[in-house]
Amino acid sequence: MFAGKTTALLQRVQAEMDLGRSVMLIKSNKDTRYGTDSVVTHDGTRLPCWALPNLSSFSQKLGAVAYDKVDVIGIDEAQFFGDLYDFCRKAADHDGKTVIVAGLDGDYLRRTFGSVLDIVPLADSVTKLTARCNVCGKRAHFTLRKTEETQTELIGGSDVYMPVCRQHYVSGQVVIEATRAVLKSQKVFDDSYVEGVTIANQ
User: Fold this and answer.
1) Residue 85 is assigned to a ligand binding site
2) Active-site pick, 16, 77, 148, 177
3) Does the keyword Metal-binding apply (predicted)?
4) How far apart are CA 6 and CA 14, in angstroms?
5) Which of 94, 103, 149, 171 has the largest CB neighbor count within 10 A?
6) Host domain of residue 181
């Protein structure tokens, strides 16, 4: 996160528009941080988009005639689309579309996230972007989650995540796990202490 994926996507899309090509942007309807009708960068740059639960519904919602006229399809937050591979393969191979995809390839635990890595074999080119570590300023290849939530899909910004280098990812995970263990044991202690107190009316 914070590597400029959406910025790069919008720059590519704008370049295609400047060449006179018809462009449509899609993002997941799960991402409502900056509204549902635009793809928006962290610094506020925006372009209108379709916010959809899946990609397979795009051509139907747009209509066959309008879909045929589209030259370029940009997809933001691609990791949230379960049908990413099938859509990209059909759009590029069979429908003749240029498909530009921006998304995370891994989650905060450094496991694959969604189908982004699955489409690499379909791609003409792949650009992996990195941010800067919030701790030391080195290249940040990983994302550290700062909250206690453990579900894979947790949409948020700098309030939830921070980009970190390998060293600070590993040390950060150790600190987070230790803090959770202390808080959990403190809660158990507090709960058992409260259960042992009897309050009597005088």
Assistant:
1) no
2) 77
3) yes
4) 12
5) 103
6) 130-201
